[in-house]
Amino acid sequence: MAVIKVLVGSKNPVKINAARQIFTQYYPDSDIQCEGLDAPSGVANQPLGEADTLLGAQNRVRYLVDQHTADYYCAMEGGAHQFAYGPATFAFVVISNGQHESIGRSANLPLPQRIYDALLAGEELGHVMDRLFNTDNIKQKGGAIGLLTNHLATRESAYTQALLLAMAPFNHPELYA
Q1: What is the pTM of this model?
Q2: Parallel, antiparallel, or unpaired: how do β-strands 86-96 and 101-105 relate?
């Protein structure tokens, strides 16, 4: 059985589980060894805007590629932005095999304006949600997505979908050359 080593640029179990799940789906006959490591994002703890959110995920992957050896490197960075139609949270995902990098993005979760205003004031989304919903460390569980969708979707499900789609260039490299 082939071993596939996957490094995730975070020790958050939600992110590690999402990566493990998609690599297990893509490589069902392999032994997936998935490990989370601290990797600096180089952006604010709560990125605002699409550019900073993407940069955070890219920085985490580049750190892993430079510092470690694996078959794949992944990072997921959650951010928020005030779009023309209202505030929303989303995530960028980056997957690399050390030579090629693929970028994906989750769907948007609309945010109440008062939650986004708290982010503008310097709070992290997880802390705001914990306070509003009387939860503890929701960012390592279902996340804001779980709370605002009554647990029909979760932070992990958003990451999983984005990662599944970001794998396309690795499945068909001849089409992406």
Answers
A1: 0.94
A2: antiparallel
